[in-house]
Amino acid sequence: MPRFEDIKRLPYTTDELFAVVIDVARYQEFLPWCLASRVFNRKDTQFDADLVIGFKMFREKFTSRVSFKPGERIDIDYIKGPMKRLYNHWRFLPDPDHPDKATLIDFEVDFEFKSKLLEKMIGPVFTEATHRMIKSFEERAVAVYGPRDLP
């Protein structure tokens, strides 16, 4: 049952970082191991998404419900796929000292595979893979908004 939580400070506004993370339809363009992504059932503050993830011999499709409050939070809840459960959340908090120039991101992911074999395959590289994924979102922000220094 891998779980990871981290808080990062980045030199972008809450709205900018929210826009990068909520853009699920483009995940295959910048996220490692994301082979395809599709958004459907759009409503005001939620949508469903399919992601096809490929890693070594592992290739699976996940369906999740994405609920959000623009500029503040994104919650991802598992619907179907190879998991017993999957929960992922992002919180976007203005930096108290520089609210217009930096954001604190509170990130958490917690999941469990149905298959113990998949759990054993993914478990040992989970933390490294999660760090790489978060780094990919940071790099996407740089690509979209340009490089910036923290204030």
Describe the structure.
There is one protein chain. The protein contains four helices and seven strands, in the order E-H-H-E-E-E-E-E-E-H-H. Strands 1-7-6-5-4-3-2 form a seven-stranded antiparallel beta sheet. Strand 5 (73-80) and strand 6 form a beta hairpin. It has helices at 14-22, 27-30, 116-122, 126-145; strands at residues 3-10, 34-40, 46-55, 58-69, 73-80, 83-94, 103-113. With 151 residues, it is α+β, with helices and mostly antiparallel strands. Helix content is 26%, strand content 45%.
Brief digest:
This protein is α+β, with helices and mostly antiparallel strands. Helix content is 26%, strand content 45%.
Topology of this structure?
Layout: E1 3-10, H1 14-22, H2 27-30, E2 34-40, E3 46-55, E4 58-69, E5 73-80, E6 83-94, E7 103-113, H3 116-122, H4 126-145
Antiparallel strand pairs: 1-7, 2-3, 3-4, 4-5, 5-6, 6-7
Helix pairs in contact: 1-4
Strand order of the largest sheet: 1-7-6-5-4-3-2
Helix content: 25-40%
If helices are DSSP runs of H or I spanning 4 or more residues, what is the number of helices?
A: 4
Number of strands: 7
Give the overall pLDDT as a whole number. Answer: 92
Strand content: over 45%
Taking the sheet with the most strands, its summary is: 7 strands, antiparallel
The general outline is globular
Cα gyration radius (Å)? 15 Å
Distance between the termini: 37 Å
SSE topology string: EHHEEEEEEHH
Q: What structural class should be given to the helix and strand makeup? A: alpha+beta
The low-confidence runs, each spanning 5 or more residues with pLDDT under 50, are none
Protein name: Type II toxin-antitoxin system RatA family toxin
InterPro entries: COQ10-like, COQ10_START, START-like_dom_sf
Organism: Gimibacter soli
Family: Belongs to the ribosome association toxin RatA family.
